[in-house]
Amino acid sequence: MKRLALICALLATPVAAQDFSDAPGGVLRWLDKLTGQTGNMELSRGQSLSNGRLTIQLDSCRYPSDNPAADAQAHLTVIDSSQAEPVFSGWMLASSPALSAMDHPRYDVWLLRCVVPGYAPPEAEESPDSSDEAEAE
Hints:
Elements: H1 2-12, E1 20-22, E2 25-32, E3 38-44, E4 48-51, E5 54-64, E6 73-80, E7 88-93, E8 107-115, H2 128-136
Antiparallel strand pairs: 1-5, 2-3, 2-8, 4-5, 5-6, 6-7
């Protein structure tokens, strides 16, 4: 009986919601599955960039206030110039890109992180192209 009361008390205890902060921008990675080309793009909130047939717009990027390196979330709108409707419009999670992935036969886009003022990301998230440039110098 005591065990049941303890379980009920634990279930009734509200779980603290994690506070999120809005970031001024985000870093995305794209892949052209046909050519194998890949790269990173940094977008400010509301900015869009084109890559091939895709136009990618960052609508919002947010991160846990107490840990900028943790799970970033971004709302993206992705438009393929050959289609009337967006091919993706929704939230992507940096830690689980497959949870809400863009379904496109040629291109793939996913969130790496939010751009957080005063926070330097780990070097491991650099673009594959930028690491080649660093080695050449």
